[in-house]
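re: the backbone from monday

yeah here it is again, tokenized this time
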């Protein structure tokens, strides 16, 4: 007797396609060492359930203490039956206008409520048990002696969001960011994240391993990281100039800030975990962007000193103006006056 298994085969094929898509998406979000840890070492359903159970038990204990009924001064100190909540309602003295005291059991917690709470807790545990859980975040913490970090921000984006439909805003932002994304592999830099309209990139942090995975750079420092990030920044300016603002129709101008220094990388949290960078280098790179000039690249002296002669010449080889100019010192919040340099692209 033959049986039609077409539906089963189609379902299995669909599951395989979804699984492959999810895996490829995760490869773009996390470096390889993070994926390996989360999939092979970090997920322990029993340990995760125990931790969730303890947390919910503490919450229930705390809420139960808050919900205990207040003692009735008319029954407290009376018979044991009254203190246990088994006393009959007491009659109020005639002519006092007071309401009779309710039985203690009526003022206590509903016995059925505990069963409902237990059912809710079990349901919550069942729903959260499947999530990969990073038991030890220190296993993913990595020190990097030097990384070059770039922040880029769109001039006029925030006011534009107030006057345009969300579909127009998203289409504009996606068009611009897709152009930036297309330049990442060309210049060998890593996209850390986007925060609103801010685009964050790092050089000297990630490299492609032998199997094509994004992997955290091991020992040693990438000597060309500053050149790579500067080249990417110039590509960003060119890409932005080819996109127009929906409000004015003028070419987009972005502020770009770059700084080089040590960072710590890692993953924190259990919901929407991200591979993030931490340290003063991140703050300084952000300050380079916020104190920069739209349409230009503003860099710290630390980053500038790492550039090759070709980049010092503006990336265009010999001849012509380099485009670089010393700022003469910029007041940076939390840092004081910093020596910085501004690169202005040549006029078309």
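seq for it, each position gets an aa:
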């Amino acid at each position: 007797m033959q049986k039609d298994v077409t539906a089963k085969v189609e379902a299995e094929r669909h599951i395989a396609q979804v699984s492959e898509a999810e895996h490829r998406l995760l490869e773009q979000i996390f470096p390889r060492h993070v994926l390996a840890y989360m999939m092979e070492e970090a997920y322990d359903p029993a340990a995760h359930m125990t931790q969730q159970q303890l947390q919910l038990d503490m919450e229930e204990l705390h809420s139960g203490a808050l919900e205990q009924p207040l003692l009735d001064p008319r029954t407290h100190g009376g018979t044991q039956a009254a203190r246990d909540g088994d006393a009959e309602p007491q009659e109020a003295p005639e002519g006092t206008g007071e309401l009779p005291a309710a039985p203690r059991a009526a003022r206590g917690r509903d016995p059925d409520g505990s069963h409902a709470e237990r059912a809710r807790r079990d349901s919550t545990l069942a729903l959260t048990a499947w999530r990969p859980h990073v038991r030890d975040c220190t296993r993913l913490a990595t020190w990097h002696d030097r990384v070059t970090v770039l922040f880029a921000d769109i001039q006029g984006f925030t006011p534009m969001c107030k006057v345009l439909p969300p579909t127009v805003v998203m289409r504009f932002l996606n068009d611009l960011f897709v152009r930036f994304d297309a330049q990442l592999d060309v210049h060998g830099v890593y996209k850390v994240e986007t925060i609103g309209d801010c685009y964050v990139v790092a050089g000297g942090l990630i490299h492609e391993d032998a199997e094509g995975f994004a992997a955290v750079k091991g020992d040693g420092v990438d000597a060309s990281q500053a050149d790579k990030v500067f080249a990417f920044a110039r590509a960003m300016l060119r890409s932005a100039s080819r996109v127009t603002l929906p409000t004015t129709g003028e070419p987009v101008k972005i502020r770009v800030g770059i700084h080089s220094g040590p960072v710590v990388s890692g993953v924190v949290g259990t919901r929407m975990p991200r591979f993030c960078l931490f340290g003063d280098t991140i703050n300084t790179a952000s300050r380079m962007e916020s104190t920069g000039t739209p349409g230009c690249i503003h860099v710290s002296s630390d980053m500038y000193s790492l550039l090759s002669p070709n980049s010092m010449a503006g990336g265009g080889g010999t001849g012509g103006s380099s485009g670089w100019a010393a700022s003469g010192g910029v007041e940076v919040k939390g840092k004081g006056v910093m020596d910085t340099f501004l690169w202005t692209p040549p006029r078309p």
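The chain has 13 helices and twelve strands. Confidence is low (pLDDT under 50) at residues 73-87, 95-99, 101-108.
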